[in-house]
Amino acid sequence: MRIAVTPGEPAGIGPDVLLCVTAEGAPATLVAYADPAQLAARAARLGLGSLRIVEDDGVDAPRAGLLRVRPVPLARSDDAPGEPDPGNAPALLAALRAAVADCRAGRCAALVTGPLSKAVVARGAGIPFSGHTEFLAALTGSVPVMMLAAGTLRVAVATTHLPLRAVPGALDRDGIATTLRIMDRDLRARFRIAEPRILVCGLNPHAGEDGELGDEETRIIAPAIALARKRGVRATGPVPADTAFTPARLAGCDAVLAMYHDQGLPVIKHAAFDRAVNVTLGLPIVRTSVDHGTAFELAGTGRADPASFRAAVALAAELAADG
Fold it and tell me: Can you give the CATH number for the domain in which 264 is found?
């Protein structure tokens, strides 16, 4: 199986974790959409100079110590860990476009993305950039659902990278019902769960306390759950977010839908930061990613932990195994 990889911000730890996992051996053929000169320089810095970096030949033959590359030249291809250059932003987006095109054409079975700096990309590309999830959705004309997974713990979010003050206005009945439908469909098709059970969080403390602490639960979230249930989705809630992640609650569901980024994701990152994987549901391709950021201070030091990238590759291979 061939898996496309975009290492992300070259000044961050994306190249480090890709190179480390390549050196030890990955469960699939990794094809990096990146600048080979920058990868070679980082490999040398990390003491991985014996790692072979070759231009992709289209072959599916995973081999420890060999990385295939589809060259995407950076504006600054010298290795500069911890020093992001906005001039590289167009190349980073070009790498994503090329990787997605190859996945959609069947040349690669899945996409694994390394971390990007949203601010650096926005400044360098001259466009608003709120993250991989939104960019890939626009690129493929899809409605995305961001979900983090670590074993049987799966947490999706109804809104993604928004300021907290914008969250209530971004919630609507049809949008949440669509999110639940996409979760149900991909949990069945990708994760092979026959009848997914989805627990839905409320927005406000105590799920609104019968309207005393906010009415989004009664006005938006509960009607969305009812609509999703009419469409065959086994969704329950809204439940208070502070009890949604107790062992008893989690034992009765296959995934949790939180209303916003920092309501649900800190829980899974606390529980499994070194093995959690970011999965974008709703795309026409399999896409996974690390659950961490660029970590500029660790780039090039050899101290970056590749566990999340390793898990992202393994999950991408698993999800893409049956097409």
Answer: 3.40.718.10
